[in-house]
Write a structure and sequence with these properties.
The chain has 411 residues and is of the alpha+beta class. The chain is built from twelve helices and five strands.
Length: 411
């Protein structure tokens, strides 16, 4: 009779309970009339009253007059306790008048266990079984094993059935909640994968634009500037060379704006140092403290350099969180005369940099090779120093922009 579950099985069980109680009440009335019992009229009247009270309670439980109106009789409510008390009182009256009323105890067991808390339902079932046994002994004027075994066995079956159903229902609810959580997690993972794919594609496009279009336009600009310097001021071609150089310079600025627009979000609102500092703050937690420091005089770096250093730091810290079991980690960004370096050091469990253990530290052995490939693409190097139980030190070094690239930025 639980309104929380409306599966075909539970609906069938409710119908069976209704039919059982109605049938037993009809049996009590028919036998009282057929056998000419002294109080046949009172038995029939009391049976009809009991059926009416039961039907009213069932209607109040399962029929709702509007969508917002809740059932007035539900498990654990005061109305349910009063309704059940009225049924039990009517049943006790039937027990006094007819010995056949003891069979109504069996559906009452299920009602008591369902509508009352377990700490009250089980004692109520025991009292009901005792009343049924007492009625049998009083009416039959004899003590037989069946008088005790029947009601007690029925009570035991009812208790086992209801408690078992409750246990299955709780397990089903836990599984449902787990499925809901798994579906939500899958959606979050799919969104994270889409975001990661978008960021990776943005980074790839920024790198391609910088390495092809921007570099080509920069070379054209420099060559046209050199040609303009060699031409006399009154040369007819000087005007066209100047116009071509200005067009190349304007398109170079457009290409660089595209590169800036495609940079990772962490680099959109600040420098590389600020992005690394925010990364350390996000990664710091109860079990891991991450500190950031800058060494040397910061200089403006090309966007691919900043992206490569930021991605390397993110990947290294991700490995630290997932695999190192470290309590402290430090990121140092060092600006030197001819290079820029990023060092990530932790005091974790460490690993063997060469051989199969690399797979244990990275994501299937992809983390370190990806960092090394990213550094090599920009002419840099990646070094890893680690040993089991001695932490890990990772350093990526990229060459600082040369004179030609400095002139490109000035242009």
């Amino acid at each position: 009779m639980d309104s929380r579950s409306h599966t075909p099985v539970t609906a069938a069980l409710r119908l069976c309970l209704h039919a059982l109680l109605t049938g037993l009440l009809a049996l009590v009335a028919v036998r009282a009339v057929g056998e000419g019992a002294p109080h046949a009229g009172a038995v029939v009247a009391l049976t009809l009253v009991t059926a009416g009270v039961y039907g009213a309670g069932v209607r109040a439980t399962f029929v709702r007059k509007s969508v917002r109106q809740r059932a007035s009789i539900r498990p654990g409510s005061r109305a349910a306790a009063l309704w059940l008390a009225a049924l039990c009182a009517l049943w006790l009256g039937l027990l006094v008048l007819s010995p056949d009323a003891l069979w109504v105890a069996f559906p009452l067991y299920f009602l008591q266990l369902h509508l009352l808390p377990t700490r009250w339902g089980v004692p109520a079932v025991v009292v009901t079984a005792a009343a049924a046994i007492t009625s049998f002994v009083v009416h039959r004027q004899e003590i037989a094993p069946g008088a005790f075994i029947g009601p007690l066995l029925g009570a035991a079956v009812a208790i086992a059935t209801v408690l078992g159903y409750d246990a299955l229902f709780r397990e089903s609810e836990r599984r449902r909640e787990l499925i809901v959580e798994l579906v939500a997690t899958r959606a979050e993972l799919a969104e994270a994968e889409r975001t990661a794919g978008t960021l990776a594609e943005r980074e790839r496009l920024a790198r391609e634009i910088h390495d092809t279009l921007a570099q080509g336009l920069s070379s054209i600009h420099l060559l046209l500037r050199a040609a303009e310097r060699t031409l006399p001021g009154d040369a007819p071609a000087a005007t066209h060379v100047r116009a071509a150089r200005e067009a190349a310079q304007a398109n170079l600025a457009e290409a660089r704006s595209f590169v800036r627009a495609l940079t990772p979000p962490d680099l959109e609102h600040g420098s590389l140092a600020a992005a690394l500092e925010r990364l350390c703050a996000r990664t710091t937690g109860p079990d891991l403290t991450v500190r950031f420091a800058v060494s040397g005089t910061p200089v403006e770096l090309p966007t691919p350099y900043e992206v490569a250093l930021l991605r390397t730091a993110q990947s290294a810290l991700a490995n630290t969180v997932r695999h190192a079991g470290a309590g402290r980690a430090e990121i140092t960004l060092s600006f030197m005369d001819t290079s820029v370096a990023l060092d990530v050091v932790d005091d974790g469990q460490g690993f063997e940099p060469s051989g199969a253990p690399v797979t244990e530290r990275g994501d299937g052995g992809f983390g370190l090779p990806a960092m090394r490939s990213r550094a090599a693409t920009l002419g840099g190097t990646l070094s890893v120093e680690s040993a089991p139980g001695q932490g890990t030190a990772l350093a990526v070094t990229l060459p600082v922009a040369g004179p030609v690239q400095n002139e490109e930025r000035a242009a």
